[in-house]
């Protein structure tokens, strides 16, 4: 039975006042979920089969552990940005939204890369192998939808054109010279990048992915010196998992 909008609002207000932990608004013709800003203690929300497109109000639901959004109007995976700050989120059902796109693997990997705490996605258990692979195949979402360009249901970072375009904010950091990354690597006791090898990369690797890889590497090296022991241990664990995923993939290919 579908609930009217008025009934949904009454139910949500009751949940806010009485400390109810669950809210079920399945098939209620909802497009606006701003009421969620008043539900800091809610733990389970069912919003499936509605017309929801904006997930920003959910940022206030810090106790949320299960979220059901199947069959809505979420057009961009950038909406996941609003869920990244929910520390207890373990179950998400996002299938049958436009943001899922035409590539199921890319979709799942992107969700898991940005929400690594999930235990179940679209009614399918999340494995450790998937979490490791998501670091390789998933797309990191670093900004809400309003700050990014959306095309064909997928959110893509707006990149400057090859010549004469204005650089994005922070591009100066990503375009740091070889001297700064090498200095940082030396401080960290890491092997330096030979200048001739780097020059070879610059002249031959014109592919966008290669450029992104080098930019990301430079940024990571610049930021690592700001981390304490705990932060560096997290980096070490993440790198170990990624290396294991690569090694497993290579073994399978052989």
TrEMBL record:
It holds the Pfam family LRR_4. The keyword Transmembrane does not apply. SUPFAM superfamilies: L domain-like. InterPro entries: Leu-rich_rpt, Leu-rich_rpt_4, LRR_dom_sf. Residues 155-180 are annotated as: Disordered. Gene3D superfamilies: Ribonuclease Inhibitor. PROSITE patterns: LRR. GO terms for cellular component: ciliary basal body; photoreceptor cell cilium. Keywords: Leucine-rich repeat, Repeat. One of its GO terms (biological process) is cytoskeleton organization. It comes from the Eukaryota. Plays a role in cilia formation and/or maintenance. Plays a role in the regulation of cell morphology and cytoskeletal organization. Involved in DNA damage repair. Found in a complex with CFAP410, NEK1 and SPATA7. Interacts with NEK1. This is Cilia- and flagella-associated protein 410. It comes from Scytalopus superciliaris.
